[in-house]
Amino acid sequence: MRTILLMLFLAAPIAAARAQAAGHPAPRETYASASVDSAGNLDIVTTGGRHIVIPPDSGQAGFGDPQVTPDGSAVGASALYPNCCTAYPVPMQLVVYAGGTAHRFRADLPIVQWAFADGGTRVAYGQQPLRQVCETRYELHEVEAERLVESFSVEHSCDAHPEPRPVRLPPWVKALVSP
Questions:
Q1: What is the pLDDT of residues 69-79, one digit of tens each?
Q2: CA distances (Å), 37 to each of 6, 56, 124, 128, 153, in order?
Q3: If we measure between CA atoms, which residue out of 46, 57, 35 comes closest to residue 102?
Q4: pTM of the entire structure?
Q5: Torsion angle, CA of 89/69/75/148, rounded to 10 degrees?
Q6: Which of 25, 54, 120, 167 has the fewest CB atoms below 10 angstroms from its CB?
């Protein structure tokens, strides 16, 4: 039985490569669900029932807030890291699994909100300090290329900015902050 499973496992990439060479696109893997297991791994289940396990990076405490795009093309989760000043780990990365690849987007500050954009081909997130929040920095990234597309900052009322200037939010920020 193991031999048969191993042969099937090894044959799938070969069949996909032959289909692409013949001008047929390889079937796209889709994802049905995602959760965080008891060991802190991101457990992704494909629509075919296969489990894909993404372990935390070195120093990472685990994952939080897993989400699947409506069409099942991508899965995302915040990557939690220990923090000196809190009793809980904070999200300092966003991990997006799409097309068989895990993409990691590192933030300078804790990620306070995130969402898929443009059907899962992009991801948007807001980051800000845990205390003394005077500004939220929003970033829009292209998932596959892992490239920053746009960033936008919004000032908040605080000692440094008692009366923040009004701003017109780009559509992708508006979609992120307005559920």
A1: 999 999 999 99
A2: 25, 11, 25, 28, 35
A3: 57
A4: 0.81
A5: -80
A6: 25
CA 85/CA 131 separation, integer angstroms? 10
Size of the chain, expressed as the number of residues it contains: 179
Mean pLDDT of the chain: 87
Q: Is-contact 170 152, C-beta < 8 A?
A: yes
pLDDT at 53 over 80: yes
pLDDT digits (tens, 9 = 90+) for 25-34: 556 789 999 9
Three-class SS state of 55:
coil
- The tokens 């000196």 sit on which residue? 84
Calculate the CA dihedral of residues 80, 83, 87, 90 and round it to 10 degrees.
-30
d(CA 31, CA 165): 42
Phi/psi-derived region of residue 70, left when phi > 0, alpha when psi is between -120 and 50, beta in every other case: alpha
> What pairs with residue 52 in β-bridges?
44
